[in-house]
C-alpha cells in the first residue's frame, strides 16, 4: 500500500513539475507567461544598467576630486623623521666606525658623502631653477613658476662651510673631526608654526663623550624651505641640510649619539618610531 502510494506521488510530482516547466493550458513557462518573462528580463536589464551607471558615476566623481597635485593618501597627522648621512648600518641600526689614521677605513664614506651632496652643487641647483631665498621677504612670490608649478629654494654646498668639499676634501674624516649630514623627511604641506625653523641638537647619551659640535649653515632647517608642496607642484625641491661637525669627542670609544629635532609640529618621543623627530646612532672614531 505504502509503496503504491509513493509511486503515485512520485509520478504526480513529475507530472506537476512538467506542467510547471510548460503549462500548455495557460501558456505559462516556469509559472509565468512569456510576456511576463520579457517584462522581468527588461526590468533586470534596466536595473543593472542603472547600477553600473551609478557605480561609474561615483568612480568618475572620485577621480575628479583627486588632484594629481595632492598626495593620493596622507595620514591625518604626520611628524617628520630625521635621517643621517653617512648611513652605515650595523647589526642594530646606524654604526659609524672608522680609523682616522687609515684612509681606506673612511674613503668609502667620503665617496658616499660626495655623491649625496652632488645635487647641492651650485650649478646643479641653478640648472634645477632653484632660487636664492636668502634676504627675500616674500618667498612665496619668488617661488611662483606657473599656475600649479613652483620653484624651490636652493640649498648649496657653500652653505655647509667647513663641511663642504671645497673647505675639506675629506669632510673632516682625516682629522678625526667628521661631518654628519642631517635632513628632515619631506612632509607635504608641513609648516613649522609661526615660521620658526626646526632646530637640531646632537648630544651623546652619556654625558661628556661628545663635547663640542658645530652646525652648518646653523643649527636649524631654514623656514624658507617649508612647506614642501609635493613632487608634481615642486619637482626640483631639495631637502635643506644641517651639517654637524664633531669638534671634540672621546676617541677610541663607542658611544651613542642622538640628534634631535625641536620645533612645533615635531615630536621626538614616540617609543614606537625611533626615527620620528630624531636619529640615534653609534659612533666610534679611532685614532
Ligand atoms: C659642481 O659641478 C661643476 C660642474 O658640473 C664641477 O666643476 C664642480 O666640481 C662641482 N662641484 C662639486 C663640489 O662637486
Ligand atoms: C627642474 O629642473 C629641470 C632641469 O633639471 C628644469 O628643466 C625645470 O625647468 C625645473 N623645473 C622647475 C619647476 O623649476
Ligand atoms: C643677505 O643679507 C646679509 C646681511 O644683511 C648679507 O651679508 C648678505 O650678503 C645678503 N645675501 C644676499 C644673497 O643678498
Ligand atoms: C673652519 O675651519 C677653520 C680651520 O680649521 C677654522 O679656522 C674656522 O674657524 C672654521 N670656521 C668655522 C665657521 O668654524
Ligand atoms: C604664534 O605667534 C603669536 C604671536 O607672535 C603667538 O601669540 C602664538 O601663541 C604663536 N603660536 C604658536 C603655536 O607658537
Ligand atoms: C624646543 O623649542 C621650544 C621653542 O620652540 C623651546 O621652548 C624648548 O626649550 C626647546 N627644547 C629643547 C630641548 O631645546
Ligand atoms: C688606527 O690606525 C693606526 C694606523 O694604522 C693604528 O696604529 C691604530 O692602532 C688604529 N687604531 C685602532 C683603535 O685600531
Automatic annotation (TrEMBL):
One cellular-component annotation, GO: apical plasma membrane
Gene3D superfamilies: Na, k-atpase alpha subunit (2.60.40.1660)
Transport among keywords: yes
Keyword Transit peptide appears in the UniProt entry: no
Domain of life: Eukaryota
Transmembrane parts of this sequence: 37-60
Family: Belongs to the X(+)/potassium ATPases subunit beta family.
Function: This is the non-catalytic component of the active enzyme, which catalyzes the hydrolysis of ATP coupled with the exchange of Na(+) and K(+) ions across the plasma membrane. The beta subunit of the gastric H(+)/K(+) ATPase pump which transports H(+) ions in exchange for K(+) ions across the apical membrane of parietal cells. Plays a structural and regulatory role in the assembly and membrane targeting of a functionally active pump. Within a transport cycle, the transfer of a H(+) ion across the membrane is coupled to ATP hydrolysis and is associated with a transient phosphorylation of the alpha subunit that shifts the pump conformation from inward-facing (E1) to outward-facing state (E2).
Subunit structure: The ATPase pump is composed of two subunits: alpha (catalytic) and beta (regulatory). Interacts with alpha subunit ATP12A; this interaction is required for the formation of a functionally active pump and targeting at the plasma membrane. Interacts (via N-terminus) with alpha subunit ATP4A (via the P-domain).
Name the UniProt record assigns to this protein: Sodium/potassium-transporting ATPase subunit beta
Taxonomic lineage: Eukaryota, Metazoa, Chordata, Craniata, Vertebrata
Amino acid at each position: 500500500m505504502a509503496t503504491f502510494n509513493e509511486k503515485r506521488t512520485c509520478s504526480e510530482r513529475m507530472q506537476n513539475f512538467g506542467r510547471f516547466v510548460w503549462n500548455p493550458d495557460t501558456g505559462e513557462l516556469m509559472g509565468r507567461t512569456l510576456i511576463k518573462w520579457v517584462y522581468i528580463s527588461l526590468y533586470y536589464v534596466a536595473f543593472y544598467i542603472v547600477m553600473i551607471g551609478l557605480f561609474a558615476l561615483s568612480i568618475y566623481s572620485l577621480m575628479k576630486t583627486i588632484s594629481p597635485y595632492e598626495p593620493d593618501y596622507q595620514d591625518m597627522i604626520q611628524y617628520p623623521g630625521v635621517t643621517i648621512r653617512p648611513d652605515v648600518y650595523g647589526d642594530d641600526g646606524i654604526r659609524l666606525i672608522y680609523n682616522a689614521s687609515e684612509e681606506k677605513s673612511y674613503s668609502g664614506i667620503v665617496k658616499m658623502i660626495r655623491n649625496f651632496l652632488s645635487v647641492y652643487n651650485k650649478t646643479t641647483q641653478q640648472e634645477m631653477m632653484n632660487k636664492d631665498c636668502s634676504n627675500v621677504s616674500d618667498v612665496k612670490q619668488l617661488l611662483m613658476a606657473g599656475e600649479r608649478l613652483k620653484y624651490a629654494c636652493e640649498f648649496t654646498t657653500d652653505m655647509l662651510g667647513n663641511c663642504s668639499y671645497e673647505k675639506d676634501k675629506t669632510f673632516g674624516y682625516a682629522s678625526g673631526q667628521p661631518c654628519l649630514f642631517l635632513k628632515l623627511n619631506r612632509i607635504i604641506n608641513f609648516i613649522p608654526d609661526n615660521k620658526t625653523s626646526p632646530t637640531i641638537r646632537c648630544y651623546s647619551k652619556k654625558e661628556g663623550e661628545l663635547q663640542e659640535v658645530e652646525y652648518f649653515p646653523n643649527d636649524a632647517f631654514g623656514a624658507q624651505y617649508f612647506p614642501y608642496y609635493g613632487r608634481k607642484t615642486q619637482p626640483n625641491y631639495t631637502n635643506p641640510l644641517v651639517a654637524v661637525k664633531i669638534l671634540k669627542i672621546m676617541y677610541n670609544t663607542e658611544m651613542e649619539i642622538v640628534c634631535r629635532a625641536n620645533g612645533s609640529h615635531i615630536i621626538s618621543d614616540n617609543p614606537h618610531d625611533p626615527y620620528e623627530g630624531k636619529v640615534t646612532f653609534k659612533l666610534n672614531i679611532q685614532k
